[in-house]
Amino acid sequence: MGALRLERQESQPEGVGGFTEMDVQAKLAKRLEADFRPYRLLAACNPPFVCRVLQPERRIGTLLSSTVVVPPIHAGVEIAAADPVVSMAAPDHPEFMMVAEQVRENRQAAVRRGEAAAHRSPG
């Protein structure tokens, strides 16, 4: 998970205010005594984007897709996330779509950096 640590550090300049990481395997083991495969969720918060979309619509928080799924796979990790443009299309608000496009661009750049970091760092 060294690429995750590097990715968190490199994302800060893009307006990401903080990260929350959840080790799903450990949570399920502790709460349910379940034997689950290694699986992590990484959620990022970009306060300027959140402010822009919450001001015109108080319920839009239900559609904010800031979670990235990072399960390990055979040769490293797979990074997967919902497309923010698709999530924000339902409310049909121009400000939401502008923010969603920026989030999409930032997320794609972060994934590219994470993939590059994964190739650079051993395990």
Q: Kindly name the structural category.
A: alpha+beta
Distance between the termini: 7 Å
Which sheet architecture does the biggest sheet show?
4 strands, antiparallel
Pattern of helices and strands: HEHEHEEEEHH
**Helical coverage, percent range:** 40-55%
CATH topological fold name: TATA-Binding Protein
Structure annotation, total helices:
5
CATH classification, class level: Alpha Beta
Overall morphology? globular
Radius of gyration: 16 Å
DSSP E strands, number: 6
> How many domains, as an integer?
1
Strand content: 15-25%
Can you give the mean pLDDT? 74
Oligomer: single chain
Uncertain stretches of 5 or more adjacent residues:
1-13
**What strand order characterises the main sheet?**
1-2-3-6
Structure at a glance:
This protein has 123 residues and is α+β, with helices and mostly antiparallel strands. The chain has helices spanning 2-11, 24-32, 47-54, 84-89, 94-120, and strands at 18-23, 40-45, 67-69, 72-73, 76-77, 80-81. The protein has a single domain (2-120), classed as TT1751-like domain (TATA-Binding Protein), CATH 3.30.310.
Structure description:
It contains 5 helices and 6 strands; from the N terminus they run αβαβαββββαα. A 4-stranded antiparallel β-sheet has the order 1-2-3-6. The N terminus is likely disordered. Helix 1 packs across helix 5. The chain is 49% helix and 17% strand. The chain is of the alpha+beta class and 123 residues long. The chain has a single domain, classed as TATA-Binding Protein (2-Layer Sandwich).
